[in-house]
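Suppose a classmate hands you a notebook page containing two proteins, each written out with its sequence and a corresponding row of structure tokens. How would you begin to make sense of it? This section walks through that situation. The first entry is reproduced here exactly as it would appear on such a page.
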Amino acid sequence: MFTDDAGKGGIAAGGPGNSAESNRRSGGDLVQLITPKGERVSHPEFDPWVQDVNDEQLGALYEDMVVIRRIDAEATALQRQGELALWPPLLGQEAAQIGSARALRDDDFVFPSYRDNGVAYCRGVQPESIVKAWRGNALAGWDPFTVNVATQQIIIGSQTLHATGYAMGIQNDGADSVAVAYFGDGATSEGDVSEALVFAASFQAPVVFFCQNNHWAISEPVRLQSHIQIADRAAGFGIPSMRVDGNDVLAVMAATRIATNRARHGGGPTFIEAVTYRMGPHTTADDPTRYRDANELEDWAAKDPIARLKSLLERKGLLTEELETAVAAKADAVAKALRAGTINMPEPQPLDVFKHVYSTPHAPLDRQQDHYSRYLASFGDPAEAASEEGAR
């Protein structure tokens, strides 16, 4: 539906990053194409990159964001009802995830964090697969190579190293695809991220570092760990950066297209700071009221990414009853599929723990599996053993 090559006329293959304008962007000003009130504003450098986004596609972006917010709400409810062990909400970050994901090509490879479920949805991951790991039924919910999305990383920032290594492989293959690493503001204080930036800059790897600055690293505010704009950190590694309004789906899309185009044409890595806000808890085990001012939440609610795009659609006369009905129906259908898939998900069997550990036969693992199989057999019928254990 969207391609990153659209609208590149007038923009150098290297993309922004070496001009005075790019320096301004990495400072206090955010690139913005849609205001919080839903007004479309012009930006001469970024406008060409979204000039192909027509009325129908604006409606599709709106649908994407409504659907993933519904996925988020349904998964949160499932966790509260005991169907999931944990869930990391993305409420408020819909534009950052949808705008960037819809700017990628199918052959690009995504390396997400645990919160990037909207990106997974855009890449074709089925709703029930998104929650498999959170239900405890699998170590990963999907085969990475069927959707070009790596398994979600719990270890903060480690996916940036994976993305950089993959990007170096792309270079060796002579391809023009791009690796994209998603992470939060808290991850930028991790050593893994610094190491990834060093390697990416040294080898001019075709990788995009996409930081969703949601202002809170669990309970620590971003101002505590970074006394400068996060985008400015990239300059120390020789990597150009952009700082965009992360609640503006068009600005995010334009920035991602610029960065991926730059990577495809040998321009090396780019760092994008999408300034957004985590409106919910860090996870469903967190209580943000213990560390966050309610007034701050209220201020950011006025910048809601979905309300913003909805206002733009209204201004353009595009928010018809038919569109709203279709979007609501799609959100309901996805939520229904998520709930049914979660509740009816087959329980893993004891020996499943040995699956997918190695891609080729592995004698020590086979020996362990044999020992464990004989151990389980010592209890007799597995169903009876489980029943007796439950009774005890």
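The notebook's second entry, a different protein, reads as follows.
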Amino acid sequence: MQQKTTSGSVTYQKVDDAYFAARGLKRHAGVWLLWALGVGAVISGHFSGWNLGLASGGWGGMLVATILIAIMYLGLTFSLAEMSPAMPHTGGAYSFARTAFGPWGGFLTGLAENVEYVMTAAVIVFFIGTYGAAIVGAPVEMQPLFWVAGYVLFVGLNYLGVEQSLKFSLIITILALLCLLVFYVSAIPHIDFNRWALNIGEGGGLLPEGNGPLFPFGAYGVLAALPFAVWLFLAIEQLPLAAEESVDPKRDMPKGIMLGMFTLMLSAFLVLFLNPSVIGVGSFKLGTSGEPLLDGFRAIYGEGFASALALVAVTGLVASFHAIIFAYGRQIYSLSRAGYFPRALSITHGTRKTPHIAMVVGALLGLAVMLTVWFVQGADQGAKVIGGTLLNMAVFGAMFSYVMQGLTYIQLKRKFPHIDRPYKSPLGNVGAALTVIIALITIYMQLQDPVYVVGVSWVAAWFAVGIVYFALIGRHKLILSPEEEFAMARGEAAYKTS
């Protein structure tokens, strides 16, 4: 018989070993597999998505926005590099916030990350659809078939087991980086920065001869480009979700996170400079493109190789899609194991020990949102409206979670100074505070674009449903999972599962 314990406004149930045995994970990831998981989760943002910010801020606006967002992510990743080995639970951000702010703080942070990862997967598979259509010459109406095929294939691959999943992530991430490297090297002899990167005039018009202003939309353009600059780094923060599948999270997690962040910073500034500068491409065209890297390859090598080049360019999208399915699977798994979500979602496969139910449910949820946007907005709206709306939904969830994670870091330093911290952030509370400030500014800017307010409103509805569920049902069904036990003990001890 289960024992119940009341703590504040929530009720915990103490379960037997069989509960955790049905929800076991396997340890396999070292530093480089973690690095690949983090970089792989993000790298698609260097292939598609970031470029939509050129239409909002021009090249100069996008540059400054990228610098600001890079500062935000440095503050975030250094904070995570400190928190994750101190609290090595698969709950990641939810478990950190749970310790700092209690069950409601943990749940709201977990709900925000749930939106982020489920919708990030949706954005990536949307762009896979645009690339896939370009490869086979399919009409735009066929794109939902590519989405379904993508989910089926990569949920299936993640189902095979963490060892196979992480090995594939390493291989495909390296291939994606090699693809970007080939583009960077190929682009250098074919760039004319002033003529093409600066071909947006004041107010957003095309300048056929280029040499336009660095900031065609002024200072406002910098702020408007912030949500799109996020796409160059979004999801690197997923690595703590792999803590219970890491061989030595206290040693490997900080190294994996920071190596991944510095890799992404280098690639982000290279793609921002080179892709719009390629002769025949330009910032104006890329501002509405669903396949910016492919546009660059086409301009360099010609249309004759378009299909082959598209197949190469899609590797980045595949790398991220695979890694994000891993992320949302573990994120749903951890909240379910602790009782915040229905418990059945955290059951893992008997021998493979993968959270297959969580991955399938996350895929179905992502597809449902995509198809709703597709039919409501209209299939003919293209990447700027459909892809941009999905992207902003993911970014909104991410920004809310970053605010909570920055505040969590500060609160943990204040309330729990005794927790063992194998790694300490060199930026400390200043880095966490910058994360909170820049994330809040980004949220504000998302609310200024009427096209994307619709998507943000859907996310708000998602939050409302989740909050009502937790208030009425979830808070009475919590489980003393590892992260909950750690929080209940105020960091004095960690609950161990076999």
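A careful reader of the second entry would note: The first helix runs from residue 17 to 21.
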